[in-house]
Amino acid sequence: MDTEVESGNRRGRPNYSPEFKHRLAVAACERGVSVSKLAQDHGINTNMLFKWRRDLRAGLLTGPATSETRLLPVVLKPSSPSAKPASGAASGGSIEITIADATVRVCAGADAALLLLVLQSLRA
């Protein structure tokens, strides 16, 4: 049993390291793995491991930082005065949302209900 636990909570609850959570969540996502058996083998509650797996799939549980983690350069393009939209006109901006392995591009004027449905299905 390889369980990484730190104490430090006033209620006596264990604090598991992010690396431990990530490693077990990845193992729980593998085909043919019994999440209950994996949790039992590591002495943790099955529901906790299911939550870690959901968090991993939703992109909320990240792996350990590696030496390859680095900042990327950002380049800002100067805007020309004539490129400003007329007063009262909506901006044509867009955003990208990345959850786990999926990227959703949302353009201005997107239907909020449809976007909510898409994001909920990605988190499932």
From TrEMBL:
An example molecular function term from Gene Ontology annotations: transposase activity
A single BP term in Gene Ontology: DNA transposition
Signal peptide feature range: none
Pfam families: HTH_Tnp_1
InterPro entries membership: Transposase_8
Domain of life the protein comes from: Bacteria
Protein's recorded name: Transposase
Organism whose genome encodes this protein: Duganella violaceipulchra
